[in-house]
Amino acid sequence: ETYEWARKMAVDALEYDDDEGANPAGALEEILEAPERLKDLDLDAFAEELERQGFGNKSITLYDIRAELNCRYKDLRTAFASANPEELFDTLTKETPETFYIGKMVIASVIGISHKKPQGEQLDQANPVRNDETGLWQCPFCLKNDFPELSDVWNHFDAGSCPGQATGIRLRLDNGISGYIHIKNLSDKHVTNPEERVSIGQLIHCRIIKIDVERFSVDCTSKSSDLADKNHEWRPPKDPYYDQDTEDKDIRTEQEAKKNKQRQTYIKRVIVHPAFHNISFAE
């Protein structure tokens, strides 16, 4: 049915009069040689007339016909473009920038301890330490401390059994993304051996500090100061129209009320009776 509409569009574009007896097929061939004349057609009015005649809303069809007459056989679909790393990350993880972002608090499972294996020069300069209480020797890298003799420590090096110094812990988030906490971000206190703080399979609270969309991994921190985030360093930015001044005023009012409540001291009476309690006048 749309073939007739294409011919009608060609005749209208060429502005043939009804008494000229225009050949629709010839008009169509002529318009293919000069398709720019189709730009003057009011396709919206044409679509309204078709809808009035009971053909339904054919606006999209008419615009497609004009596009085909302008560029025959052209694929009108948007050119294919490979997904960028961010789009690929969002698609595969089913996350969005609103649900997965830097500063978000997450729960992760500890799946391992990462180590940095000592190199040749480091091994040559190694200085094993002997525990005077137990009489056993300790590896200065992996901190294993059950070697009876000093030679056992060197055999430990030569056999390649030393995993090296612990550098952090490896995590697995609920959405399947792998995570990592560097040993310096494990605690506010200095940590030498992560196994003293966490164990394999343990669930820990941490905060995202970096997202690597290409490697599908995140860096996290489990410091108490970062988890508390009292200075709001990791929280997402608030709405630009958020009334921060009013919030600050409410916080100050609440703090002053707490201070005034603490000042209202009274002499506590020591009376041994289950129904007696020290209370203030307001209470």
TrEMBL record:
BP GO annotations: nucleosome organization; transcription elongation-coupled chromatin remodeling
InterPro entries: NA-bd_OB-fold, S1_domain, Spt6_death-like, TF_Spt6
Chain positions covered by the region annotation Disordered: 224-263
Record-level Gene Ontology MF annotations: histone binding; nucleic acid binding; nucleosome binding
A single cellular component GO annotation: transcription elongation factor complex
Xref: Pfam families: S1
Domain S1 motif: 168-223
Biased composition (Basic and acidic residues): 226-241, 249-259
UniProt KW keywords: Nucleus, Transcription
UniProt subcellular location: Nucleus
Superkingdom of the source species: Eukaryota
Family stated for the protein in its record: Belongs to the SPT6 family.
Listed name of the protein: Spt6
